[in-house]
Structure formats: C-alpha cells, structure tokens
Design a protein that fits this description.
Bound molecules: protoporphyrin IX containing FE
Strand order of the largest sheet: 1-4
CATH architecture: Orthogonal Bundle
Order of helices and strands: HHHHHHEEEEHHEE
Structural class: mainly alpha
Largest sheet: 2 strands, antiparallel
Number of helices: 8
CATH superfamily: Cytochrome P450
Number of strands: 6
Number of domains: 1
Length: 303
Amino acid sequence: MKLFSYDNEESRKIVRTFDEIFWEINQGYAVDFLPWLLPAYQGHMKKLAQWSIQIRQFILSSIIEEHQQTINLSEEPRDFTDALLMHLEEDPNMNSQHIIFELEDFLGGHSAIGNLVMLSLAAVARNPDVAMRIRSEVDSTTGGTRGVSLFDKATMPYTEATILETLRTASSPIVPHVASQNTSIAGYTVEKGTVVFLNNYELNIGEQYWSNPQLFQPERFLSKEGNVTKPEYFIPFSTGKRMCIGQRLVQGFSFILLASIIQHFDVSADQNTEIRTYPACVAVPPDTFPLIFTPRSCSRTEV
Ligand code: HEM
C-alpha cells in the first residue's frame, strides 16, 4: 500500500472525510431502520454521497492509476492494490469499481480503529488503574526492551480485555438487514422484506447479561485463570454471513496501538476538559476531546 506523508494536504483531507462519514453513519438515524423515510433525509444522503465521491476520486487518481502505470503483471504483487489489479485481469466477474470499493473499505477502516482506540484512551484517562494494569502487562511481556507485537496477545489478556470492554461500553453499530424470504425465528413468523436486526445495545448493556453494566471493568472478560473469555451473546461484530470482515484487523491494531501508547505515555485529560463520549456510539466527533500524552514519568522498575 502506498504511504502518504503527514504533510500531504489531500490525504489529510480524505482522512478527515472518513472521520466525518464514520461519525455521521454512527448517529443511528430513523431512516436506517425505516427506509420509507428516505425522502425526508435527502440532504443527509446527498452529503454522504458527496463525501463518497471525493474519496473514490482520491483512491482512483492517487492510488489505482499510479499502480496501473507501474505494475508488472508477470511479477509478484508489491502490495494489496497490485493483488487486486491482478485479480481484475483474471476474474471476468470483477470490474474496477470492485477495487475502489475494496480499498475504500480498508482505508475507511482506519477511522473505525482510530475511533475505537480514542474511546479506549478515554477510558484509560478516566480510570488510571486500568492504565497501570496494561502497563504492568506490557512491561513484564517486553521486559522494557522492545515494542509490542501481536504475538504478545497471549501474555497480555488484560489489555485485550480492555479493548473488549471498550467495544461493550461504546456498543457497536446496529446494522439492519432485510429478510430475503419468508421464515421464522424462535417461533415468530418473519415475512420476506421485514427489517430485522440484532439489538447490540441491549446485548451490551442489559442488566440480565452483565453485572454493573455501567461500570468500565475489563476484568469481566477474564476467566478465573486470567484468560480472555467472552460470553456467546457478546457479538460486537455481529454474527452470520454478513459479520464484520474487519474484526481481526480491529482487534489486532487496537491492541498494538493501545499497548504501545501506554508503554510510552501517561494518558490524561486537562481537569477543565470534559471527556465527552456518547452512549451507544462507537464513534467520536471528528473534532473531539483533547488528551494529554506525557512521556512516561517513571522507569519500568518504579511502576
Ligand atoms: C470499531 C470497529 C468496528 C466495529 C464495531 C464493526 C462492526 C460491524 C458490524 C456490527 C457490522 C454489521 C454486520 C452485519 O451486517 O450484521 C459490520 C460490517 C462490516 N464491517 Fe465492520 N466494524 C468495525 C470495523 C471495521 C473495519 C476496520 C473494517 C474494514 C477494514 C470493517 C469492514 C466491514 C464490512 C466490509 C462490513 C460489511 C460486511 C458485509 O456486509 O458482508 N469494519 N461491522
């Protein structure tokens, strides 16, 4: 994948646009569940469509066209975009739109991950004891001599549990589906065309599922032996055929990011700043609460 410098105005604008979209689509508008309300949401839809056009133009001109000019089809792909372009040559069912959508999903994924990490840092700033436990795991795993890797997950269950607890408290998006045929669920008739969805909000905060659901307690995802454990009704990435394709990416990246930040910084907020997060929303606004990152004040042995 091509790397863009932080100074590249165009790529910064696209990152911002993704954040705008992620915030917007996580607002849970009535039209998401009642499609016949669409005429009342023309402005909203137009805004989303314009953002998508900007993103697709950027992907086409700054990534795909550049790859097309330099790709060597007889060699190994250099990156994901090359692999997609090669697949396009081989598969008559694919067209260039598919490549744009694929890259759009994966680039857009950064926004989901960034938002989730921001929410986990908000939780850490509010709960310094959580930060201390993560740091203690990082230090004992790395010996203070190297960065964190995905292989460290096995010995850092509390850090992984913190990500899961962030997902639970933020609550994941409720994505509506439409029944494609007449069927029944648990004895209830569901006619073709009915809008159906999993109520992830209830599954994540219902008192019948969790003790003290309003509290941020990563240890609820740890077994007595200290291993990560998830109840079967915890499905932040949904379930079935259409479950999130990004879930492994999300869990891997957010683990590395959170652990690495805590390894190197104390995370806090200014006393006069409200760390504002929104119930049942895995997104933060594009301009959100500031956090303070102070390089670690004490050495590993002092923690
Ligand atoms: C905070 C992080 C994320 C959460 C909580 C999340 C959650 C979800 C949920 C609940 C669904 C709906 C599944 C359904 O229709 O039943 C979904 C779908 C999807 N997600 Fe994610 N997601 C996240 C990040 C990502 C990332 C990083 C990517 C891409 C790299 C991604 C790509 C997708 C795609 C493509 C679908 C549609 C799958 C389909 O319809 O077949 N997601 N996600």
